[in-house]
Amino acid sequence: MNKLILTFAVGSLLLYSCGNSTNEKLSNQPEIAEHNDHHHDDESEAIELNNGEKWQVDANMLTHIRNMENDVVSFAKVEQKDYKSLSEKLQSNIDLLTSNCTMKGKAHDELHKWLLPYIDLVKELSEAKNETEATKQFENIQISFTTFNQYFQ
Fold first, then answer.
1. Which residue has the higher pLDDT, 28 or 74?
2. What superkingdom does the record give (predicted)?
3. Helices marked H in the chain — which ranges?
4. How far apart are CA 45 and CA 79, in angstroms?
């Protein structure tokens, strides 16, 4: 239940921040309410391709995603694993990504199907109680980037 509430809260925050600068917040309130009614809280929502092609992610957003992916790839190669430090770096890029959300439409919706479960994985990594748990969450994050690269460019 707590995971569902947390996912909904994060999703609402993400949707609120997407495409809304401080000057636009008041004029876009009906759109925000509409977004909040749309659930992104279940990993079972399958990501769809764009008519058989990968979705285009806006360049400024893709930068943060690639930074996270590079951190994950680099981390896999190091001997001493500092999972807490990695989770902090990933969360920092998530914060930058969500605060700079410029995408709209179907590509935006499909990206959220990947992003919300990914955010949960990073949170679970940060809360891992031991190295075995952290290793498993790290592996799940690696798989998440494989999924990202299947559907987005």
1. 74
2. Bacteria
3. 2-17, 29-37, 59-77, 83-99, 105-126, 131-151
4. 36
Q: Which band of pLDDT confidence, cut at 50, 70 and 90, is reported for residue 31?
A: very low
3-state DSSP assignment of residue 55: strand
Structural domain boundaries of the chain? 56-151
Distance CA 152, CA 136 (A): 24
The answer to whether the CB of 116 falls within 8 A of the CB of 7 is yes
Residues 6+ apart with CB under 8 A from 141: 72, 90, 118, 121, 122, 125
User: CA–CA distance from 3 to each of 42, 132, 149 (Å)?
Assistant: 10, 21, 26
| CA pair distance 11, 98, nearest whole angstrom | 10
> What SS3 string covers 64-78?
HHHHHHHHHHHHHHC
pLDDT at 44: 52
Chain centroid to Cα 120, Å, comes to: 8
Q: What is the token pair recorded at 139?
A: 């592996």
Find, among 115, 111, 141, 140, the residue nearest to 49 by Cα.
111
Beta bridge partners of 72: none
Residue given tokens 């759109």 in the structure block: 31
